[in-house]
Recover the amino acids of this structure.
DNA sequence: ATCCATTTTTGAAATCATTACAAAATTAGG
DNA sequence: CCTAATTTTGTAATGATTTCAAAAATGGAT
């Protein structure tokens, strides 16, 4: 959750409308959060970031919306450390580095030529590539490990 | 959880001993289950498969053992669908296909040349590659999706 | 504008996986 | 066979997510 980029409301509204999703206040707020504050937030982090602005916001709405967005390919679900994290699907495909110690998640370019295997037993609709290990911060601060 | 291959007790004992793990009855049972009935069981599936044979077995022991084994690189943790699954680390590295509908997990050969990215900001100790989609069984039975 | 049907949001309770913890059981070595 | 260290166990706690039904908001027709 670092870089910030302003998005036009119309662009975000269109993104939802095109997917057949009504752009309610809550849905727009969640979409805007993901679009502007890039990062890989959990449902609870999203709730925490928005509840001050929308005091009646419910965690259930956040979960509902995240499910809806994932289903409609607006967001992608990540499984990095036992908790689900969310990433904008309109971002170019990329891999993720996950720090085993602090849980930090970083975007990594996908290796060239990575594609779904040609297998007749199933149809692949998404590829998730995780590199797990230690980030430099944890490596230097924790002399152990 | 399908293929079955008999393992010599000595081989499994040595695997634990070499890692500095005492081969208790419970640990051996869990290791043997993973080694013989290849598959990608969850902690609960392991518990369920063993509790008949070891009626005093505790879920906590299963979790403890799985953590110990993962730490000592005897097993690898998979995150396929919100629940942790386990895979023998002594198997050759491979990717996994995950069915979004029934949760089936299948081993897939790793694409050639996949390796940790050369980034100075972190040290990678494992690579996890998931292909997610629908297996043929779900594709044909569920006409929807 | 007002009504009605539909959709969306909400909050509380339930569920599921996992962890924490302290007591009981087991084991290894002297 | 005693004692200390390790391992296992069961229960309770936690945390993330889901379920569910009621309340609120919305859109379209009148």
């Amino acid at each position: 959750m670092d870089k910030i980029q302003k998005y036009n409301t119309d662009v975000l509204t269109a993104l939802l409308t095109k997917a057949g999703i009504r752009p309610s206040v809550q849905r727009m707020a969640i979409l805007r959060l993901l679009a502007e504050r890039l990062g890989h937030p959990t449902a609870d982090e999203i709730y925490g970031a928005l509840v001050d602005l929308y005091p009646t916001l419910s965690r259930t709405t956040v979960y509902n919306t995240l499910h809806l967005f994932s289903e409609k390919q607006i967001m992608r679900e990540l499984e990095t450390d036992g908790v689900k994290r969310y990433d904008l699907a309109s971002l170019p495909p990329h891999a993720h580095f996950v720090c085993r110690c602090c849980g930090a998640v970083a975007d990594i370019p996908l290796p060239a030529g990575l594609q779904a295997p040609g297998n007749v037993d199933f149809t692949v609709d998404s590829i998730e590539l995780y590199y797990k290990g230690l980030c430099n911060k944890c490596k230097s601060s924790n002399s152990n490990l």
Q: What stands out?
A: The helical segments of chain A are 9-18, 25-36, 43-50, 59-71, 136-141. The longest helix of chain A spans residues 59-71. Residues 78 and 85 of chain A are 5 Å apart (CA to CA).
